[in-house]
Amino acid sequence: MQVLKRPLITEKGTRLREEGQYVFEVDPGANKIQIKRAIQTRFNVDVLSVRTLRVKGKRKTQMTRKGIFTGKKPLKKKAIITLKEGQTIDIFDTSGSE
Fold this sequence. Notes:
CATH topology: Alpha-Beta Plaits
Structural class: alpha+beta
Number of helices: 2
CATH architecture: 2-Layer Sandwich
Distance between the termini: 23 Å
Number of domains: 1
Shape: elongated
CATH class: Alpha Beta
Order of helices and strands: EHEHEEEE
Strand content: 35-45%
Largest sheet: 4 strands, antiparallel
Number of strands: 6
Radius of gyration: 17 Å
CATH superfamily: RRM (RNA recognition motif) domain
């Protein structure tokens, strides 16, 4: 199971980054301890706290020639990470992606 899926770059996340907090999309089955360990090992920082929230999937409807199709998007889980003062995570670092 891959705990960290991707960082979420939103307006709220940008405001939180100024306070030393970062928002990540994580695996829905991951708990706070697993998230904390994954952040510490991947970015080599000290995590003070982890707050999680679950986002329900939205219902979607599509009109086609064959009729109406309804479905649902999957559940997502977000984690708000608070780092020790003075530490940062470079989310836009692209050095390892080549």
